[in-house]
From TrEMBL:
Gene3D superfamilies: Hotdog Thioesterase. It comes from the Bacteria. This is Hotdog fold domain-containing protein. SUPFAM superfamilies: Thioesterase/thiol ester dehydrase-isomerase. It comes from Kribbella sp. HUAS MG21.
Amino acid sequence: MSQVLGLWERLRGVPGGERVFSWGFAWKAPYFWSVRPRFVQVSPNFAALTLPKRRAVLNHIGTVHAIAVCNGLEAAMGALAEATVPAGKRWLPKGMEVSYLAKSTSDLTCSAETDPDAWTSGPDVPVKVKATRDDGTVVVEGTIHLWVTDKKATHERATDN
């Protein structure tokens, strides 16, 4: 079990545990803190978080800015990837394709999902992502492509400059 998945499993049943996990996840990758993600599920091949609609992420028309939404989608994808990547493998995002379908007028649920078989047939692993308003309307959907390769051996990393 990955560190991220193990931490999620330990904290999710504790009062305030999801908040502690979310804070720790954003602390490890500080850029995600800008959208204040609140994880609601982390598991192999699926992760979801809420992205609160608040002044810091609004655009000029009072909706959640498209790039803030993409930041939430990438955070969900990152948790999924950490919970899913096979032992001995590493992942890097290599691209994102999204469609903006509706205005983001409420808090959003950002989710990421993969086909379990994609992790063994890679190296390209597509992650389906979507952001949904409180009323169930999908506001953004797309794919984040991951590049999944073998981890370098420890001695190789030590000699790389």
